[in-house]
Design goal:
This protein has about 240 residues and is an alpha/beta fold. The protein contains eight helices and nine strands.
């Protein structure tokens, strides 16, 4: 995961150094696999090798190894050097390769039109509303015309947002962290943005990213006492 500020980078560097590979999940997000299947699994292995996919905020490569394993040209960018060091270990364990770069979501280190797909699994939610708008401009820039953007991000329908005290709001949708002890993701002490479906689709369209598929995924925690909802969205660059 990535953000524009040092506080978020420090948090992730400490987390990865303290917990190592256990700081993040080891296996890919199910909704990401659905996205890949809808768009690319009918292609042959030879054709997939010509499809370039960027994992924006790849962390320790729990999603990226699967992208590489399925035969795509896999790229990953993350703000945390420690995450990428661990990610290289994960890629090696699965005997796959990907091109990793240290970089910022707000200034992706790639040329215009570099990718057929950009995927973002629980990464850009560390950006506040203004930063997220800048990030989407970068996503649109590095995507090829007709390229696909996949986003898996927290929804404002989550109890963690509705009942966010003692956290405070940075802007309409962004908290200064998750500080309620019985909340999922408690202890994430950095900007944590939730999204409203209609507002999210509108800002995507502002950047020429047309939503084509939107689903809601809800999980419960604490023996069903707490509900956390995710938005799973696919958009196409016009």
């Amino acid at each position: 995961m990535m953000a524009a500020d040092t506080t978020t980078l420090d948090w992730y560097e400490r987390s990865y150094k303290a917990e190592g590979i256990n700081a993040q999940r080891r296996y890919p997000n199910e909704e990401l696999i659905r996205f890949l299947a809808r768009n690319f699994f009918k292609l042959s292995r030879e054709e997939r090798a010509r499809i370039s996919i960027l994992d924006a905020g790849c962390g320790s490569c729990s999603n990226l190894w699967a992208i590489a394993h399925e035969g795509f040209e896999a790229h990953g960018v993350d703000l945390s050097p420690e995450a990428l060091r661990l990610g290289q270990q994960v890629l090696a364990e699965w005997e796959v390769t990907a091109r990793l770069k240290v970089g910022n979501l707000l200034q992706l280190p790639y040329e215009d039109g570099s990718f057929h797909g950009v995927v973002d699994v629980f990464s850009s939610n560390v950006l506040n509303l203004g930063e997220f708008d800048r990030y989407l401009a970068e996503v649109a820039r590095v995507l090829k015309p007709g390229g696909k953007f996949f986003l898996f991000t927290p929804s404002t329908e989550s109890d963690a947002f509705r009942n966010h005290a003692p956290a405070t709001k940075i802007d309409e949708f962004t908290l200064n962290g998750i500080y309620r002890k019985d909340s999922p993701f408690f202890g994430n002490a950095y900007a944590f943005r939730f999204s409203d479906v209609a507002a999210l689709q509108a800002v995507l369209r502002n950047h020429g990213l047309e939503p084509e598929n939107v689903e809601l995924v809800t999980r419960t925690y604490n023996r069903m006492a707490e509900s956390f909802q995710f938005i799973s969205l696919e958009a196409r660059r016009s």
